[in-house]
Specification:
By secondary structure, the chain is mainly β. The protein has three helices and twelve strands. It has one domain.
Length: 198
């Protein structure tokens, strides 16, 4: 059982368990794409964004070169079926779509400092090292006709729905470190990046 989870209300902070980060390399048997992954605590997380093609997946600005570097962008319907269950074949075999709890655990393992709340009232977690090598792949708007923040922000999906909407994670550079924000109200039609976990 995971021994530590960050609470969104702000009790944070533990001993570091990100000091040693064993890495692995594996191949997605569905399309032959190879991925690296790093271990944080008792979770492994891919260190490159998922590239697997699904019905509701997109390349930034519909250009293949962005998919090869930043992976695909996926909306909520890509990862969850009509009954709200995570799609079993979305991630490579043996890997899973991260839940909000998974992301909280991973953030806690990256030695965060809680900063001021955002204007939306969300907590902001600042990390010095981007252990999971989260990329700044931007996002596709929920209207489906615009793309934003490539190279400036990374937006990552979860399989978790909340009362306010879809739970997602945002990372951006801040000074010498990185700010991570968890949003609980993302529009389900927005398309963002995925890191599978194990």
């Amino acid at each position: 059982m995971r021994s530590f989870i960050i609470g969104l209300l702000g009790v944070v902070f533990l001993c570091s368990f990100a000091s040693t980060l064993p890495t692995i390399n594996f191949e997605d048997s569905r399309d032959g794409v190879r991925y690296d992954a790093v271990t944080i605590g008792d979770l492994q997380i891919m260190t490159t964004n998922l590239q697997f093609h699904t019905e509701n997946s997109f390349c930034y600005k519909n250009l293949d070169r962005y998919c090869k570097h930043f992976g695909k962008l996926y909306n909520y319907d890509s990862v969850v079926d009509t009954e709200g269950n995570p799609r079993e074949n979305f991630c490579p075999e043996g890997w899973n779509i991260p839940t909000l709890t998974d992301w909280e655990y991973l953030i806690s393992g990256m030695n965060p400092i809680v900063k001021r709340g955002s204007k939306e009232g969300q907590l902001i977690y600042n990390i010095t090292d981007n252990y999971a090598q989260l990329q700044f792949g931007g996002f596709r708007s929920h209207e489906g006709d615009s793309y934003f923040t490539l190279g400036k922000e990374g937006h990552y999906l979860t399989s978790t729905m909340t009362e306010e909407g879809w739970a997602t994670v945002k990372i951006k550079r801040q000074g010498k470190g990185y700010d991570i924000t968890i949003a609980k109200d993302t529009n389900k039609k927005r398309a963002i990046s995925c890191r599978c976990v194990k």
